[in-house]
Amino acid sequence: MVIHINIAHKATREPQLKMKFTISFLLFFLVLTPFAFSDLNVGFYNSSCPKVEYIVSQVVQTNFNINNSITVTFLRMHFHVCFARGCDASILIDSMTGKESENDATPNESVRGYEMIDEIKNFIEKVCPSMVSCADIISLPTRYFIVLAGGPNYKVPTGRRDGIIISTLEETNIPSPRSSISDALKSFNSKGMTMEEMVTLLGAHTVGFTYCNLVRKRLSNDSSMEPSFGNKLVGLCSMQGDPKVFLDQNTSLVFDNQLYNQFFLERGVLAFEQQFASDSVTKEVVMRFTRNGESFMERFVDAMVEMENIGVLLGNEGYIGKNCRVFNS
């Protein structure tokens, strides 16, 4: 909205000019406020796009009804996004001439869920064009998927902007299933996160899975696995192809603390995970979460919110992508 001010007869119209200037300034401030915050805020889109969370929740519910194992897809994407360049959605940009995308980098080859990001973005653009960032369209559905899987509900601070740079170099910072605990901790520390937060976020694997090609070597020469469980996995991985293996064998699709319980029973699927129950640095936290599922849920919320702050772009930084696959023209 523009308020025109006639500057003629300044002496006789000064009070009106002051009032009109004040109104104009206030309107200008109200329009810019959603994009001028210097920090993330719960309810950032309450004025600029009040239906955003409803749209996200409906798309999430529809997709979860079709495939209730999709929770881990978004947890994995979210982690890879934030641990590369930062929570700026740059992983969503497709490769272009002369520039390989982050989503083509080796650590991200197994990341999925891009089509659903497109689906959510398309709905939102019809209602609130150029208002909601792709970075926030990663954080919001992840929360809803966690809740649908039985995990904690929490408020997601929003207001992230999308990144203007894609890179594959930072991907080396993402811990792999073959990492040691000390190497993984260095990666977390480099992002400003603690050992406890690392152990906490590992709990997201309670709805996760891997494939036999990452397990077979351990089955042949690792004595730290409980024998009957090892025999079960040998039988599964002797099947043709590369079968999927749930990391939480008890409640595979439920977000709970059962993954930690399995570690103490020597039933961790990945050698990297099993180490957490015996390593002197991480053992105490694993034991606490094994005994107290509520404590795990509370700390998981804190760790997720902390992770979602890594490398965020705010205010006038970055931009709002119209299509999460390509930079705005």
UniProtKB/TrEMBL annotation:
Family statement: Belongs to the peroxidase family. Ascorbate peroxidase subfamily.
Any one GO molecular-function label of the UniProt entry: heme binding
Keywords: Calcium, Disulfide bond, Glycoprotein, Heme, Hydrogen peroxide, Iron, Metal-binding, Oxidoreductase, Peroxidase, Secreted
Pfam assignment, any one: peroxidase
Binding site for Ca(2+) 1: 86, 88, 90, 102
Location within or outside the cell: Secreted
Catalytic activity of the protein: 2 a phenolic donor + H2O2 = 2 a phenolic radical donor + 2 H2O
Cofactor: Ca(2+); heme b
Residues that hold heme b according to the record: 205
CC annotations in GO: extracellular region
Name of the gene this protein is made from: LOC101514001
Site location (Transition state stabilizer): 76
Ranges for domain Plant heme peroxidase family profile: 39-328
Protein name: Peroxidase
Active site: 80
